[in-house]
What does this fold into?
Amino acid sequence: MAVKITIIGLGQIGASIGLALAPHKDLLVITGHDKDFGIERRSKKLGAVHETDHNLPNSVENADLVILALPVHEIRETLVHIAKDLRNDAVIVDTSLVKVKVAKWAKEILPETVHYVGIAPAVGPKYLDLRETGLDSAKADLFEKSVFLLSAPSGTPEQAVKLVSDLIGFLGATTLLTDFVESDGLMATTHLLPWLTSTALLNASTSQPGWMEMRKSASQDYFNATAAFSEGKSAQALAELAMHNRENVIRTLNALMNALLDLREDLEKAEEASLLKRLETAQQNRLNWLLERERAEWTKMPGAIVEKQTMMESLFGSKFGKMGKRKE
It folds into this structure.
């Protein structure tokens, strides 16, 4: 009997998951839902899903696994709409960048016999320079050689966690177990800080009296430095992510401001050697990071799951019914 997976939200993340899983139609039935009917139809045509259901409650009614590939400001309302239609022992996964808040919503809204697991995905090194967003940027190998942070409430059945970990393995990625607080802290630096840095640079430069002239000669470096908060990103999503993760965002902004102050101090004091050292250190750290991402030797990381049991073995081995209610 095929395992039923529903993907809600068919943008870059949701459709890429679907494209990676869709070839296994002998084992999986993938249903797609998006608030945009046109995106649903295009997703099916692209092969990201096997079928679509524009009725949100119906789309999850018989699903063993439901993936919420949605911006954080849409998750709570979606949980409310689907909660009563979920089957017992269904596993709900979200891909948003904040976990403490989403986990709280899941505990408040989902039935006790439904299990929540949060993941924070990252694209693989092949696509680090991918600027496009949305369905048109979906790739079957988007996550290859990347790491997904996985967090689950205390007492979540082992089978539910293993199921999601095996799903991540099917995408070509490695699972790194974290708690919700740690996941939010990491996402604040690696995802939200670049968005906010781009925002600050744009606001700082476009508000200057000379912007009318500066804009004519703005460089490729300026373009790249502001690209993290491009037109493809949602201002509302960034605002909610930052507010839901305020303490971590404030901490990482403070670290950034201290680093900028160090650069300014070197310039004020004409400390050329110190300035050069900071620049060289930053340049080398970036190179090291890119090499590490390309090597993807993540199995050596503490907390990484490296067991090679397949997703199908996990799915059929658990039989879901053995999971029972969530523990407090």
Remarks:
- The first strand starts at residue 3 and ends at 8.
- The chain has 13 helices and nine strands.
